[in-house]
Write a structure and sequence with these properties.
By secondary structure, the chain is an alpha+beta fold. The chain has two helices and seven strands. The chain has two domains: 4-67; 119-207, SH3 type barrels (Roll). Helices cover 29% and strands 21% of the residues. Strand 5 and strand 6 (185-193) form a beta hairpin. The protein is rod-shaped.
């Protein structure tokens, strides 16, 4: 018994040393479950990455199929395109000026000569329009100058008449108002009623060797 005691103590010591070493090893290295967890954690990024790749690939395939099955877009031809009317330049229309024109809202009255005389009592020159009378000469070396006018009568024969201030001439009660030898002009004035019923005086100037009035 005394001989076995040293061996027994040595065995117990070795057991304690082994247990301590095993405990230290367990503390220094993770357990089997811990290793499995670490391995899964290390493999997780790859798994997640492959899952994302598969998901993206699936989405891409679905989008491609959707675009392939979509109805083709109709393109407009030249005939289908709308054509706008050509822009035309705006022309400026004529402007109306009421100056010198009768009022369209007033009653129309015929032009009446207030100095009209019966035709049987007319002087020879009152039978002709002023446009038919031609001023042909002046007698000026006398106290009162006189004029010479010419008309073509019904038989197509020209006939001359001597006129002076106050001589009646024309069908509208025209009167010789002045004879101007220096200007070779005879001034004739006639009084008429316009379309509005207003009395107006009109002067006509006959120039030597020219017919009509200006």
């Amino acid at each position: 018994m005394k001989k076995l005691r040293p061996y027994l103590l040595a065995a117990i010591f070795l057991m304690f040393v082994g247990a301590a070493a095993l405990r230290a090893q367990e503390e220094a290295t993770p357990s089997h479950k811990t290793k499995e967890a670490l391995d899964k954690f290390k493999k997780a990024p790859g798994t997640i990455g492959s899952g994302l790749s598969e998901l993206m690939k699936t989405g891409k395939d679905r989008l491609q199929k959707a675009f392939e099955t979509k109805a083709p877009v109709q393109t407009k031809t030249k005939e289908d395109t709308l054509t706008l009317p050509e822009k035309r330049e705006r022309t400026q229309g004529a402007r109306y000026s009421p100056a010198g024109k009768r009022d369209p809202f007033r009653r129309l009255q015929p032009k009446v000569n207030i100095t009209a005389r019966p035709k049987e009592n007319l002087m020879p020159l009152e039978k002709y329009e002023l446009g038919q009378v031609k001023f042909t000469g002046i007698i000026w070396n006398i106290k009162e100058a006189k004029g010479i006018v010419e008309v073509v009568e019904e038989d197509n024969i020209p006939r001359g008449y001597i006129v002076q201030v106050g001589t009646l001439i024309g069908p509208n009660g025209g009167t010789v108002k002045a004879i101007k030898p220096g200007e070779n002009v005879i001034v004739i004035q006639e009084t008429t009623i316009d379309h509005y019923g207003a009395r107006k005086k009109r002067e006509c100037k006959m120039t030597l060797s020219k017919g009509g009035c200006s």
